[in-house]
Amino acid sequence: MGNKQEMQELIAKRAAKELTGPCVVNLGIGIPTLVAKFIEDDHVYLHTENGLLGVIDVEEDDIDPNLVNAGKLPVGEAVGAAYFNSAESFAMIRGKHVDAAILGVLQVDQTGSIANWAVPGKNIMGVGGAMDLLVGAKKVIVTTTHTSKDGKSKILKECTYPITSTRSVDMIITELAVFEVVDKTLKLVERMPGVTIEEVREKTEADFTE
């Protein structure tokens, strides 16, 4: 596998293939923000918790410092974009008006439960909209590197960090493989180009079927 950026873009590009319009999609922090670069369907409308529907990528010369997504990264606005306050934005999520959410995670387990908001003993950004999206989004896709920086599997038999919600995600996409979560079990549905089943097995702690 290439450098970190190439690996993240491979994951994001594969996630973008899951998005078919017309649909409203929320992109989480981290790898999910890269998905916007690879969406080719003009009827996929990006939503951000801080109050914008119609998020698009922005060139460096066109950056407006006041226009950012929930991760504080600069974004652009599509023609016909809509602004609203944060309460209305979360009402959209909780009211099931978001068709898909793509989330980053710290861990995911073999039942599809994820941990992405807290590390015991560490002060990180906090939950953001993740809990709401897991409850309200119609489909939830996880994008993550298959292993942590120290080489340990991030796809576990059971999460060791606090889980974000009791709802299972629908799909997990890494630089090695794509899993679907069916009845709280993992099914391997695709391997990334050049990846062997042996490598997937070696780097996945969780049980899965093929």
UniProtKB/TrEMBL annotation:
Pfam families: CoA_trans
Alphabetic keyword roster: Transferase
Source organism, top-level taxon: Bacteria
GO molecular function, one term: CoA-transferase activity
Family: Belongs to the 3-oxoacid CoA-transferase subunit B family.
Protein name, as recorded: Acetate CoA-transferase
Organism: Domibacillus aminovorans
